[in-house]
Write a structure and sequence with these properties.
The structure is a homodimer. Chain A folds into 2 domains: about 120 residues, Rossmann fold; about 100 residues, Winged helix-like DNA-binding domain superfamily/Winged helix DNA-binding domain (Arc Repressor Mutant, subunit A). Helix content of chain A is about 40%, strand content about 20%. In chain A, strand 7 and strand 8 form a beta hairpin. Chain A binds a DNA duplex through helix 6 and helix 8.
Chain lengths: ~230, ~230
DNA sequence: AGTTAATGTTACAGATTGATGGCACTTTAG
DNA sequence: CTAAAGTGCCATCAATCTGTAACATTAACT
């Protein structure tokens, strides 16, 4: 699946430059010139990264950043600020408010991509083609392989995404609804109980034989990947 | 707990500058001038962030970065490169190899700190993760876990919400009616005395064995979380 | 001390919630 | 095109939680 980038930028030249280069590097780029619209789109269909111009008509980039962080949907999406201002105070303010990184115009497309990758490696290691690990489980998103103690584990597509989601957020409890949203997709409707079934299948596949169960059930709250007990 | 920073830098002036500023900002700083030693220390006692000079005698910063990533212990520690080189190709190489960020000398201490924070926000969502503390009790609302003196405490859903409510308002006395309202919900009707039962269950679970009882009964008023006596 | 209201404790039946196996239907691979 | 794999949903069983009432104990008065 392509990495989805939301570009909020009013300068069309830059928009085109970024779009061209990112698409060539196999990203999916959505762009808007207006801050309000950016906020709306971001909440609507959460992207993997947001590139945010500092200077925008109406709302400032800083303000947008703040609002993105405030919204549940977008609070955890990494934000990279694009700006002409090289002066430090602004940079610091941007980072303090919750931007993850900062690229100064003019920037080279290669650097921009490298920074996007660096930031993604943190948030969603799997997107950056990194191997995820949790205890004796490893998940390689390039080869789409899951190993436990060097034994290959076979998972169906849904179980794979489910496990990946857990491994990207170890320890965190997700409700069935949250899981449906982020693993199945925000637009499909399936019974929340169906999650139980897939959890069951995932557990079965993972704990084949010896293995301890790393999926923790939290009654009336959801599930988490965790070395519990 | 203080954030532990490992600084690998051979220029003593910079080392002192960074140390002074970070310690003032309440970080714990370990510093080494040599790459080999840095690798050793990092693996020995894994820090929260590594600040890595680009130009080092013997091993280059780039090579150290690579090796840090290769080692299981340090593979996930965020790395911020410090460098005088402003030229893009190097920056890109650093980021590609696995550095998380990049600060160009001369840098301002404030910016460095802001970048450390930005990077940590990514690595340890726990930092943003709502952890409530009261004396030796901790309640993490992201992982839905309650610990007392590092011992995991199991609570039923209602006891969990009850404790959370108390920990969000430590010291404050709540009547049974208030508790029913905010813990059970304003629309359900249950006997006020039922609160007693849940208080009892919460106390029992929390004070398993040694523990002092932090729930104070206020006769004819209600209950509070409090280190009384 | 004795009285009384308030709180502590316990047991239990009923209600919730999660686990599991089966099944019909869809998608994918060969 | 067929067989195999994957998916979602349901019915059922099992585990756990919940609210209540009954009884015990305590604290605050006279």
């Amino acid at each position: 699946m392509k990495t989805r980038v939301l570009l909020i930028e009013d300068d069309l030249n830059i928009t085109e430059l970024v779009r061209y280069n990112l698409e060539r590097a196999d990203y999916k780029v959505e762009s808007v010139a207006d801050g309000e619209e950016g906020l709306y789109l971001a909440a609507q269909d959460t992207p993997d990264v947001i590139l945010l111009d500092w200077m925008l008509p109406n709302l400032s980039g800083l303000e947008i950043c703040r609002q993105l962080r405030r919204n549940e949907e977008t609070a955890n999406v990494p934000i990279i600020m694009l700006t002409a201002r090289a002066d430090e105070p602004d940079r610091v303010r941007g980072l303090e408010i919750g931007a993850d990184d900062y690229v100064t115009k003019p920037f080279s497309p290669k650097e921009l991509i490298a920074r996007i990758q660096a930031v993604l490696r943190r948030v969603r290691p799997a997107l950056a083609g990194h191997e995820l690990r949790f205890e004796d489980i490893s998940l390689d998103n390039v080869s789409h392989r899951v190993m436990r103690n060097d034994t290959l584990i076979h998972l169906g597509p849904t179980e794979y995404r489910l496990l990946r989601h857990f491994m990207e957020n170890p320890g965190r409890v997700f409700s069935r609804e949250q899981l449906l949203d982020s693993v199945w997709g925000h637009d499909v409707y399936v019974e929340p109980r169906t999650v139980d079934v897939h959890i069951r299948r995932l557990r079965k596949a993972m704990n084949e034989g010896d293995g301890k169960d790393y999926i923790r059930t939290v009654r009336s709250a959801g599930y988490a990947l965790d070395k519990h007990r």
